[in-house]
Amino acid sequence: MWLKPEEVLLKNALKLWMMERSNDYFVLQRRRGYGEEGGGGLTGLLVGTLDSVLDSTAKVAPFRILHQTPDSQVYLSIACGANREEITKHWEWLEENIMKTLSVFDSNEDITNFVQGKIRGLIAEEGKHSFAKEDDPEKFREALLKFEKCFGLPEQEKLVTYYSCSYWKGRVPCQGWLYLSTNFLSFYSFLLGSEIKLIISWDAISKLEKTSNVILTESIHVCSQGENHYFSMFLHINQTYLLMEQLASYAIKRIFDKETFDNDPVLDDPLQITKRGLENRAHSEQFNAFFRLPKEETLKEVHECFLWVPFSHFNTHGKMCISENYICFASRDGNLCSVIIPLREVLAIDETNDSSKSVIISVKGKTAFRFSEVKEFEQLVAKLRLKCGATSTQYHDISTEVPVSSDSVDPSDDTEVQSLTCQRECSKTVNTEALMTVFHPQNLETLDSKMLKEKMKEQSWNILFSECGRGVSMFRTKKTRDLVVRGIPETLRGELWMLFSGAVNDMAANPGYYAEVVEQSLGTCNLATEEIERDLRRSLPEHPAFQSDTGISALRRVLTAYAFRNPKIGYCQAMNILTSVLLLYAKEEEAFWLLVAVCERMLPDYFNRRIIGALVDQAVFEELIRDHLPQLTEHMTDMTFFSSVSLSWFLTLFISVLPIESAVNVVDCFFYDGIKAILQLGLAILDYNLDKLLACKDDAEAVTALNRFFNNVTNKDSPLPSSVQQGSNVSDEKSSHIRVDITDLIRESNEKYGNILYEDIHSMRCRNRLYVIQTLEETTKQNVKELFFSYYWCLSSPVLKHHDPSLPYLEQYQIDCQQFRVLYHLLSPWAYSANRDSLALWTFRLLDENSDCLINFKEFSSAIDIMYNGSFTEKLKLLFKLHISPAYTEVQYKDPSKGDELSKEELLYLSQLHVSKPAKEKEANSAKNSPEKEKEKVNIQAYLSQWQDELLKQEENIKDLPRMNQSQFIQFSKTLYNLFHGDPEEESLYQAIAVVTNLLLRMEEVGRKLHSPTSAMKGLSGAVCVSGVPSEGQAEKPLEKEPTSPREEPQWSFAFEQILASLLNEPALVKFFEKSIDLKAKLENAKTSQLSSRTKK
């Protein structure tokens, strides 16, 4: 088969390969030990043994063809074969079709480029026919049986694919099978009586990369839990690596991004993940990222072809990529030329009758694109016509309103038509102009030198529009990038940001969406809206637009609407700074869609609690620093310095560190080039300050040097008034530091670091994402262990008796009731209550759902979280549940002299008194809490599903809570009295609880009379003191339950809604439960207390 041309190290390869044929340009080699009498000596015997130890499907291809050029040490592998007949066929094809052509080239470089292009074309042609071809079902079934037999994983584990490869155990290669399943990477080898079995969980991998060394030309390096594993001798190493990368990434996402998996029918069910599905998904993700298309787009077809570029008068070679709603083209060199054609813009699709095999696509604005040398172009035209027919019907009402003329069409016109009706409805509340237009209108009568330069920039862009078109379907060329680097004119900035970010497509596909979200989110009150209100006045406070209600209101609407749209992100700091800049140059609705593009596509996982995306890109930045600025890496003792300094660069796109007039130029480049622009600029800044940083003695000095540099970055061509420009606040005379123009800095970053490829950044992101998440996991594990173990017990503590390392780390450490009491006394905000031991006992019983007299950290932290961070309703519900079954049990103290304190024996005894459950329910709970426990294995898939469900468990319905009976209510009232003791508002709280108790008893009495007129409430009027605060010594007497006979009337009871409604009427009670308590201080005090008690011992 033909192979993607890749370099090989011939010097080492000669030990394993023998030459069969050769000419000036190609070499045919046979693997030693194959087809030789006697096996080719000792070397051939060893190689043959390694290649043939398993069945025939495990063999390394014994023949290959290399491309060589005269006077060159570089060899490229271009083909391999399983037998002599197959490889001879490839060799003869090369001699007949390639050899004659190569003699006309003048340089070796042209020869190599031609050969590479031809081979890639052959591979693409083969790939088209094998795109829908299934794997050999018989071979896959056989491999599946081996996989299940060798590893004994849970039945739910789905095998995705398998490869023959070598696993390096030390310096010895072991030939075997690599199995890739949904949750594990597994390897099995049996050679000369020695068995090797390896199982690695995908979510335990911290490093996954392709490497090469002296022995191995290329291998895959896997690092898991500090152990390094190397796999080599793959027939298709790039394909294997891509699948491994995806499976590892999905395993991590399955834990941290459940919402994505819930909304994806394939990812939600790992059993549906297939090799072809993963490959298609990877190609679609790369396609969407490159062309900035919505995430929902799926790459359907790829065609090699030529696109006619009218303004340059030549055909450029590249690929036509087709999805559900877009036709895209990128030249072989992605920077040379690219085009995006939404099907909603297409008017007609035609084919030519000549031999050029051309497809002509006409779009609005009387523009046509000609694609030539398209194979199977007739079928393609038929498919596209069918697609456009469906799309035209969908967008028919919109399309008929868009004028088509010979002039360039402004892309904003299409969007405005789509949302015209909605804008009319909400024009009173939503701004339809960019804030810069309102607060800094250009005065054409008084043109200074800066305004003249601005007009020259506009003219340059108008010339580009006349050549390349205007709007979403314009040609994007090297000239486009050059103009972006110079800075986009103020009047075009909003339009081009929408275009380059892809937000124009989101807005066109969702007409009226923003107005609807604004209306729905209006008046909502939650944590996100509170944080938004807090930060509104901190967003570019020096700009006049955000010193007025117009700008503040627009910012509030956009941020609130986005928090409503995406509650998973909600609102994060730095979003306000970015959005305020977007509102300056884009209309309000456009600013919203730009924010969507940034948060959900261009900077994924940046704006959330863990800021994983920013941490990943910082790791990528550190890797680039090592590659491009090694002297700085050697000087810095700790690379984390770059992470701490650059975090704000990535989160705010340099807006927080650069003057606003300079920062917008960075945003221009970001929307055109994505994160690549930020990484390049970061490297250029460090390079510019290299000498100063090398002279710094510590991190503080380096930070000062960088801050001083940022303060001296200017934009000499900015037309903004001096009152707005931040860089103009310091005059050149007063500053002894050299001024740096932002345009020069960006141009330098492109010249020095523009060779960084999108593919390399994507690969580094994937590789570092695993490392970052594993680091966060290890930190979390350490914190859990420290908080739950090290702070409170010494190493010899019996807590180790309840440690199960096979469980996930949140459940590994468990404690009994006595240990829980210690923690409760140290950490609970209710620990000062007189009956704190009883509360600790009831809380433990409530958390111990599986009745094993042990609770884990996850259960413990859930209760503490409610006590400190819960709402009034949540805290009251917790107290209510503590006083009903199964948590509540009547406590009788054996030693009255100790008051309400329970002995260890009493505590442990009472914790074991559980409400009996049916046998079937016990078995179900046992199976739920310990998946596959009977097999002594943990079913990881079952656990992940269970854990995700628990994390996002819906709020318990208060109507489902059982009623509280008489004795439980009396104890509940006692607990409230105990909680209020010692509080500054003690008297008012006692009075309030007395009023509430009296009200509840009267309500119950009225209810009983309505249902049974002859019944009367006897002896209950004194059940609780209602005349005020009980006097000392009599506080508990009124609450004592009087003995009753079976013939007396049935006990009364209360529902949780009744108690909640009554308590809400007392402001003193609400204030008591809603006051904030510093958990961090409580933890520090607990730690100090335990350390000091440990020292005394």
From TrEMBL:
Main location: cytoplasm
Pfam families, sorted: GRAM, RabGAP-TBC
Domain EF-hand as annotated: residue spans: 835-870
Keyword Cytoplasm among UniProt keywords: yes
Domain Rab-GAP TBC: 487-674
Subcellular location: Cytoplasm, Cytosol
Keywords: Cytoplasm, GTPase activation, Repeat
GO biological process entries: glomerular filtration
Record-level Gene Ontology MF annotations: calcium ion binding; GTPase activator activity
InterPro entries: EF-hand-dom_pair, EF_hand_dom, GRAM, PH-like_dom_sf, Rab-GAP-TBC_dom, Rab-GAP_TBC_sf, TBC1D8B_PH-GRAM1, TBC1D8B_PH-GRAM2
Annotated CDD domains: PH-GRAM1_TBC1D8B, PH-GRAM2_TBC1D8B
PROSITE patterns recorded: EF_HAND_2 (PS50222), TBC_RABGAP (PS50086)
Keyword Cytoplasm attributed: yes
GO CC annotation: cytosol
Domain of life: Eukaryota
Family matches, as PANTHER family: PROTEIN VASCULAR ASSOCIATED DEATH 1, CHLOROPLASTIC (PTHR47666), TBC1 DOMAIN FAMILY MEMBER 8B (PTHR47666:SF4)
Role played: Involved in vesicular recycling, probably as a RAB11B GTPase-activating protein.
SUBUNIT field: Interacts (via domain Rab-GAP TBC) with RAB11B (in GTP-bound form).
Name this protein carries in UniProt: TBC1 domain family member 8B
Organism name: Moschus moschiferus (Siberian musk deer)
